[in-house]
Amino acid sequence: MTYLLNAFSLLLGLVFDAAAALFVLRLLAEASRADFHNPLSQFVYRYSNPVLAPLRRVLPNWRRLNLAALLVAWLVLLLKQLALAALAGFVPALPGLLVLAVAALVDFVLITWLVLVFGWSLLSMLQPDGYHPLLRFAGALAAPLLRPLRGRLTVGMIDFSPTVVIVALLLARLLVAAPLYDLGARLAG
């Protein structure tokens, strides 16, 4: 029976992660001013807008940060934590659940950026069509992290700024997200 429960929790986690990814990508796309004419930007906008449009009337943007998308991503990850705990037969305390959801959101954003920077740097080394929608979308979302280091860590023809950003993101996962998870687990009981 535990094999079936593990399979079900994996599928449930994938569904919640896909929903959270949609809203995190919307958050990052608006923050980095990704090209709206890109088909991937339009996909993210089209499928996240029915949920975010009513919320944006109540919760407007702060600078370039879409607070409604941030709230919905946090709520999705909160529901994921609650559903996985319920499947395990455990009901966490509310403060612990809230902190676990914050930790999951921070970790999810860091992993998303990690995948985007790694994927963009890998694709740019392979020299595909520069106008490919995936390359342009990943480049736009990775640009705010890479821009401060661009051209400063170049040796010959190789730019090491993506490597430094990836290491910084991994360190942020270890030093920010992991302690938040530990705090949430202690508070959850």
From TrEMBL:
<dbReference type="Pfam" id="PF02325">
    <property type="entry name" value="CCB3_YggT"/>
</dbReference>
<dbReference type="GO" id="GO:0016020">
    <property type="term" value="C:membrane"/>
</dbReference>
<keyword id="KW-0472">Membrane</keyword>
<protein>
    <submittedName>
        <fullName>YggT family protein</fullName>
    </submittedName>
</protein>
<feature type="transmembrane region" description="Helical">
    <location>
        <begin position="160"/>
        <end position="181"/>
    </location>
</feature>
<dbReference type="InterPro" id="IPR003425">
    <property type="entry name" value="CCB3/YggT"/>
</dbReference>
<feature type="transmembrane region" description="Helical">
    <location>
        <begin position="97"/>
        <end position="123"/>
    </location>
</feature>
<keyword id="KW-1133">Transmembrane helix</keyword>
<feature type="transmembrane region" description="Helical">
    <location>
        <begin position="6"/>
        <end position="29"/>
    </location>
</feature>
<keyword id="KW-0812">Transmembrane</keyword>
<feature type="transmembrane region" description="Helical">
    <location>
        <begin position="65"/>
        <end position="91"/>
    </location>
</feature>
